[in-house]
Amino acid sequence: MNKLFFLALALFFSISVFAQIDISEARGMSEGTTVTVEGIVTNGSSLGIIRYIQDETGGIPAYPGSGSAAGFPDNVTIGDHVTVTGELKYYNGLLEIDPIDSYTVNSSGNPLPDPQVVTPAEINEETEGSLVKVQGVTFADGGGVFSVGTYDFSGGGESSQIYVRSNHPLIGTPIPLATVNLTGIASEFSGQYQMLLRDGNDIEVADDFFITSPIVESDLTTGGFTISWETNNNGTSGLKYGTTPDMENEVDMGGSTTDHSVTLSGLDAAEFYYVQAFSNNGNTTIYSTEKLVSTASNSSGDILVYFNHDVDGTFSNGHHPYGTTPAELDAAIITRINQATTSIDVSVYNNNRPSLTQALIDAYNNGIQVRYVSDSETANLGLQNPTPPFQVVKGNTEGLMHNKFFVIDADDADRAWVIMGSTNMTPNNLADDFNNMVFIQDQALAKAYTVEFEEMWGSDGPSPGIFNVKFGADKSNNTPHLFNINGVMVESYFSPTDNTTVGIVNAINTSDDDLQFALLTFTNNELGNAVLTAHNDGVDVRGIFDNTSDQGTEFDYLLTNGVA
Questions:
Q1: What CA–CA distance (Å, rounded) separates 112 from 63?
Q2: Which residue in 39, 70, 317, 333 is deepest, having the highest Cβ count within 10 Å?
Q3: Strands (E), 396-534
Q4: Is a pLDDT exceeding 70 seen at residue 15?
Q5: Better-predicted residue by pLDDT, 342 or 317
Q6: Which architecture does CATH list for 116-205?
Q7: How many CB atoms within 10 Å of residue 435?
Q8: pTM score, two decimals?
Q9: Has residue 17 got a pLDDT over 50?
């Protein structure tokens, strides 16, 4: 009799757990409980393979982890009414259903639940998983461009953030400078509550007059440049500018237009200018974000390319490398070091070349300022025996200091050189692996690399500022990105702070006829998608991978989609 009682109790408990329940009730159950909920799907593929489900009581995501029923999420999209059974699980603080044991799409094309209007601080555990709307907020990075990552916003004395994942439709689009209303799904990652916007329609501009696009520089000369921007309604055109963040100069062109441009002249060559555009519609003056822009230099603009292995000259378009052997590449670097007259800045991931270090020691002993930044996790045997007399900053315990660049005589227009490329200063990288280095004689570019170097060095002097050194995400986007090098427009970005991926995607998107790449590893989804889009648009795409099996590689994705 007792056995029958306990069996009946167990069956009752099982039925009660698997019976359909409100989402709010499911959210109150313990991790590992199997639940059945139903509701409206509030997102599609822009957030990846996760699907958020909401009923009248709350919301919860369903994630098709290992062991999940087939066809989810491919058969499930925004506006579907679904029934889902699965196990409750916490993923970095977010309560979700994972794995999904079973699901049913009951109907499609349903209206979405009305978002709950909340303040930034009310994006929390109470609203997690549900559609919410915040009103009258501004982005801290307004005027920039969305990439993968988090973006803070604030309003009414409160703040929160949105998260933009890889392949999201917001990537590469402008971050509004204006006051906005945001609609999205309240979510969480490692204790940080955040909104997940689904696409650009989740951003509603609340202002009547605003700048619609980031300011753009063009027509770079040794004495000036043009700054352009757009507004949603007619207004005047003006520009604040100067060589310091105070931007001590101002020009107001007046007028009334939505397409604005201001040309500056009489500026100094190879100088960096802070600029900020403004427009007035008769009632309100609006301002762009500040941007750093470089005039062209008086340097020669010579660009010399070196490889460490032979190349087949029959494929040349008329240009040829200046060297194709390890010895030629090594000698070219040391020759530039020996020709330095005032300064040498070195930022190299790994150096196992005593001859390189000796050339730097000789320069230092001859009165040349030598500053050196290396990675903290590599052997750097070339810096150990003997220990160089110049100071070395070792950086980035949380990621690679993966630079390979030299800056020589940045203050001299005729002698300033930047040497950069893929080559580490090790025997294997020089003699065995296929690598390159590019030598560019341009003072403006050299000054930009100096700014980047001094962030890691921690000072603008001969000695490092140990308490001010910055690596990785601690750095800032503080260099110009466009340079006129003897008539050739060159773009420069430093990772991870400069929206480098967006810059590369934009360059790929300009390809008309052919696109070629040669990479050690290729794991970035945005770049993979951009390459495939170019291929599908008829561009002749050819690529070389060294590592084809790295985690997240784009190799199979591109190959299976027809990219050779």
A1: 20
A2: 39
A3: 404-408, 417-421, 436-440, 482-485, 488-491, 514-519
A4: no
A5: 342
A6: Beta Barrel (2.40)
A7: 21
A8: 0.88
A9: no
Q: CB–CB of 372/462 below 8 Å?
A: no
Instruction: Report the mean per-residue pLDDT for the chain.
Output: 95
Q: What ranges do the domains of the chain cover?
A: 2-107, 116-205, 216-294, 303-475, 500-560
CATH code that applies to domain 500-560: 3.30.870.10
Extended strands (E) in 108-222: 116-117, 131-139, 149-155, 158-164, 180-189, 192-196, 203-205, 216-221
SS3 514: strand
Distance, in Å, from the CA atom of 445 to the CA atom of 448, rounded to the nearest integer, reads 5
Q: Supply 133's token pair.
A: 């709307």
Q: For residues 362 and 358, what is the distance between their CA atoms, to the nearest angstrom?
A: 6
Neighbour tally for 75: CB within 10 Å: 12
How far is CA 494 from its chain centroid?
Answer: 10
- Residue with structure tokens 């029923």? 69
pLDDT digits over 209-222, tens only? 999 988 999 999 99
**Paired tokens of 382:** 């070339």
Q: Which of residues 514 and 14 earns the better pLDDT score?
A: 514
**Residue 171 pLDDT > 50, yes or no?**
yes
Alpha carbon 123 to chain centroid distance?
A: 25
H or E segment to which residue 236 belongs = strand 224-242
The CATH number given to 303-475 is 3.30.870.10
Q: Is the sign of the CA dihedral 461, 467, 470, 476 positive or negative?
A: negative
Residue 292 pLDDT > 80, yes or no?
Answer: yes
Of the options 2.170.16.10, 2.40.10.10, 2.40.50.200, 2.40.30.260, the CATH number for the domain spanning 2-107: 2.40.50.200
Lowest average pLDDT, out of 7-11, 88-92, 363-367, goes to: 7-11
Instruction: Report the first-to-last Cα separation within the chain, whole angstroms.
Output: 72
Give the dihedral sign, CA 403/406/412/413.
negative
Residue labelled with tokens 């006051």: 179
Task: Read off the pLDDT of each residue in 50-69 and give the average, rounded to a whole number.
Answer: 98
Sign of the C-alpha dihedral computed for residues 331, 333, 336 and 341 taken in this order: negative
Reduced to 3 states (helix: H, G, I; strand: E, B; else coil), residue 83 is: strand
User: Which two three-digit tokens encode residue 388?
Assistant: 């160089």
